[in-house]
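Hi team,

As requested, here is the filled-out complex form for the fe (ii) ion run. I kept the field names the same as last time so the parser does not choke. Let me know if anything looks off before we queue the next batch.

— J.
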Amino acid sequence: MSQLKDEQGLEVSTNSADVVSVVDKFGKDLLSMGKGVTDILAQVDKYPENTLIQSYVACVFLYGQTKETDAQAKKYLSRAQSTIQSANEREKLFLSSLESWFEGRIEEGAQKLERLIKEWPEDLISAKVLEFFYYMRGQQYSGARFLKAMETIYEQNKNSGYFLSSYSFATELCGNYEKAGDLAERAVEIEEINPWAHHTLSHVLLKRGDITSGIKILKDYEYIWDRSGQAISSHNYWHLALMHLEKLEYDKALPFLNSQILREKPYTVIQHLDSISLLWRLEMGGFEVPIELWKSISNIVIENSSDAYIPFNSAHYIYALARAEKKDELSRSLSAIKESVSKKNGHERDVWEKTGLPLLEACKSYATENYALSARVLKPVINNVMMVGGSDAQVDLFRQTYLLSLIQSRDKERAKSYLKEISTSKTGTPLQEHWKFLI
Ligand SMILES: [Fe+2]
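And here is what came back:
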């Protein structure tokens, strides 16, 4: 088998220039988080002998995080495995990392991708996939490791706007908001269509409490999100909705649910999580979410609510079912999740047992307004909550749940000091002032 070179100068095991074009297009779509990322599905049957194309399609399905998408991924992983004789070492290692992902061995898969980008630093597709492994094992918890991985490949990629968007996000997760903002701006200067860099900016602005200018800055990028893939479009709009919530503008935050987050069907896990999280946070901000809305959201998510993918996902599903008062489904989902956890191994099982399952218990308690119990269950696990998956801003959901549990159970002293502990902005936002008032 010949080795042709892709746009990055990396060897692809193929005799066909068309294969290289498919690989290059997929790379561009993945890194720019464009709508075309699934276009590779229309190409996959044309190149059954190509490891990389089969692997990339498996990867698209693995991002789905459901049993159905995993079943599709398995088909393409098997096809990729059947072509392994003609694959080069980089392609073999990438496939192997996806196989670890499919088996739920996230830590192992992350280590494989870290090895891969060290040896082939120009492989930004692998670096992008590695970023999602950090998300699954807790992005803030993995922040230093994510940053180190990005620094390892900095020299070869410093002029790529896409690389800089990931580097900026790793920097943000480590709490260096100023540098992260600068890197994200540089990323946008180089690559205009760069919603992942806008995403870093939204994290930076939210964490700094720079809400008014944050809304203004983010709104200027909306036209790009509307042309981007659903995942990043939904998530960036979720961030914008949170900005309005920080100002207690419920009437501006809530409409993002239907107009943007749930705009496209079929719904994905990312849309599920952003929807539930927005409603949950609105409730904690003092807005009363009608039970009918919880019922309609829980009907959307119920097919995935018994999956034990990562604790971060399950915590959202459990909360939604509890708020919708779907008691039978809630209890069935919790039993199924515990059963799945008992079959897990290693790092993943450890996180589930020590932090994930208590978190689910606390989410159920909080949703059913048993605040003293949720405060008690969360107390020993809250400092490890960033290990359950999700980013810093996303796991703030659980930190805020702990804060509200303390407030609602009248533990004033602890609530006061915890609010101080979790505040990252220089001046209090209206939402933080609202909580202070409640204490
Ligand atoms: Fe985010």
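Two things worth flagging: Residues 296 and 324 are 8 Å apart (CA to CA). The mean pLDDT is 97.

Thanks,
J.
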